[in-house]
Q: What sequence folds into this?
């Protein structure tokens, strides 16, 4: 059995910075070592200016290379998410995709990581691999809402991109989601909600990551199936006045088991 983990955390977005993403991946990496039997050599971190589109793609290739049934793979992304619109050669908006945002994301296809990119990687993972993907980000947000006590992990588009997204909405073009048929995907919230970048005890974290680690560290947390663990995380968030509802999706052979079972 092989173990591999890739953890990407980005605070240093030009114009729309975050605060807790690097703490997220450091905390999760330490948990994988302390509680899940990973060695430090099994884990790669990629943060801030190094977390470029090419850098993430290169390390995702490392994560899945040679994966076999029984291996344990873990991918965490803490940073901005967004919705990426696609136009055809005639300039018509034809699709919109869930996307994660590398540090060099600039609303061009060259510097976007959309669902199609991730599917091309994830589809190489054979069935029977214990593969979990934690996405502490969100794909919706509205900066015109009332003042929050946190920052949303959603990269707001410039006006021209916002118009394309409005066009897609008017045309009722569905958003293609992040793939989850080869992994257990734990995402920070529903598609119409925001994931919080917040302060806990004077230190920044993503609310999902903070309470996920809290739940996993509790008695019996590591034995709880993912399908039950995520509702436990939701209860912790609600009890602490966060409105986001984490989601868990994926094949039953993964989400019916505990977090990275040995």
A:
């Amino acid at each position: 059995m092989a173990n591999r983990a890739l953890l990407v955390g980005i605070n240093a977005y030009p114009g729309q910075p975050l605060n807790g993403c690097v703490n997220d991946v450091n905390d999760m990496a330490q948990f994988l070592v302390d509680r899940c039997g990973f060695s430090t050599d099994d884990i790669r971190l990629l943060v801030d200016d190094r977390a470029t589109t090419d850098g993430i793609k290169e390390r995702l290739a490392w994560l899945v290379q040679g994966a076999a049934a029984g291996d344990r793979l873990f991918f965490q992304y803490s940073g901005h998410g967004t919705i990426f619109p696609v136009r055809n050669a005639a300039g018509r908006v034809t699709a919109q995709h869930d996307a994660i945002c590398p540090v060099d994301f600039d609303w061009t296809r060259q510097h976007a990581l959309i669902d199609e990119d991730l599917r091309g990687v994830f589809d190489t993972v054979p069935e029977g691999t214990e593969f979990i993907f934690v996405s502490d980000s969100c794909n919706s947000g509205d900066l015109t809402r009332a003042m929050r006590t946190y920052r949303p992990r959603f990269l707001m588009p410039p006006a021209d991109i916002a118009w394309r997204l409005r066009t897609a909405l008017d045309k009722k073009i569905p958003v293609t989601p992040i793939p989850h048929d080869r992994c257990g995907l734990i995402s920070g919230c529903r598609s119409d909600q925001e994931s919080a970048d917040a302060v806990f005890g004077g230190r920044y974290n993503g609310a999902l990551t903070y309470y996920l680690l809290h739940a996993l560290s509790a008695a019996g947390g590591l034995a709880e199936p993912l399908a039950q663990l995520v509702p436990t995380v939701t209860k912790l968030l609600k009890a602490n006045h966060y409105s986001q509802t984490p989601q868990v999706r994926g094949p039953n052979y993964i989400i019916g088991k505990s977090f990275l079972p040995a």
